[in-house]
């Protein structure tokens, strides 16, 4: 029996759910203000976040790591950047430019790598060979 790695079905499921969420976001943005539509997008994720945290706590019952002020500052900056990016995506949808908005959202990994390089000086390394 051939088994596929978990990443394959997980990636397909995540891609499908993300496409569905983006389509719903486009519809919601037609009847709500820009900020209200963004808030809906984040509130949609709260139950999933709590379920993932609960699952993590079940699997790893050790105490959660402590957080310091610098960590909270980076979280706030990242959250603000995510809110701005989401509002820009929704703004693209309001101009009936679903393709551009979707393409913009799909380049976020590359954008993150470039910004990590420019702002944090991080370097991407090549994947190690298998053998």
Describe the structure using short key phrases.
globular; 74% helix; mainly alpha; single chain; 131 residues
Explain what the structure shows.
The chain has 131 residues and is mostly helical. The chain has one domain. It has five helices and no strands. Helix 2 crosses helix 3.
Fraction in helix: over 70%
Can you summarize the main beta sheet? none
* Shape assignment: globular
Q: Structural class of the helices, strands and pairings?
A: mainly alpha
Number of strands: 0
Strand content: under 5%
Entry summary:
By secondary structure, the protein is mainly α. The protein contains 5 helices and no strands.
Detail the topology: elements first, then pairings.
Layout: H1 7-29, H2 34-59, H3 69-94, H4 98-106, H5 108-120
